[in-house]
Amino acid sequence: MERVTQMLGAGLLLAVLGAAFAAPWLAPHAGEAQFRDYLYAPPMRVRIVDVEGQWRAPFVHRWRLADRVMRTFEEDRSERYPLRWFVRGRLVGLDAAAGQPLLLLGGDGLGRDLVSRLLLGARTTLGVALLAAIGAVLLGVVVGGLAGYAGGAVDEMLMRLADLVLVLPTIYAVLALRAVLPAVLSTATLFWLLVGLLALVAWPYVARGVRAIVAAERGREYTLAAVAVGAGPIRILVTHLLPATRGFLTVQATLLLPAFILAEATLSYVGLGFAQPAASWGAMLRDASNINTIADFPWLLSPAAAIIVVVFSVNVVSGAGGRGGALGALTR
Asked: Model-level pTM greater than 0.90?
């Protein structure tokens, strides 16, 4: 059963990563495209049986705005609009003659397609999380490896620096650092800024583990043999000692990834992350934060469902079901 669950988690994770990679092709519309007549439009129903009971190729009906004030829609079944595949450089869409957008998950408060923004937001959110996790692991490997191999004053100094970062309430430290920086930044600048901030606050969790492993392996026979034959410190560290940390680094990376996804969502939700018109899962949740809006238009919570799926998948694949290590620290 556990094996099946891990395979399911791996499949979900690969599907999300693949969808994020192919988002410009999978998204039916541009992320910033607005359709003024479809503000808060509900998800369109893809049908294969028409009103007369005949089987058809997949199609949708037009949403007709029934009440402009209450934002209620009715399905106009007088016409069918078949789905078109591989149109205008995208996987699926509707003919231009249809005169309406394809809103498979509905529209947001500005009439933008939620499917498109969810896919494009995955590139932003997962991109920040993946690159920040890689940065934290690399920085932790360098600092921890150096501390564990050198020992003495170097080890003491680097570990005290790591302790200084570790005692900070991490998510609040990230919020404070972001708050003192300029409020208005380009999407690309903000992307790399968040990657750097998250990596800087997370590297000590990796460094301490790497340091402990390297320090323990430094006295083993194979290391002493390498020293005896004249191998240099860098070669010993890279060739003999750091490979022993691979299992630990894999676990830490799978813990950091969901933590960074939640961190990006938190920053964007409180207005310190990505802003309009950029799409990210945190920014989309901020747009849906009004409780009345959520009650009336629950499809706006689709980014929350995406975050739950990714975090669940990573934790299942890594076997880290609890909130331990870096994940617990970064989300405390």
From this structure: no
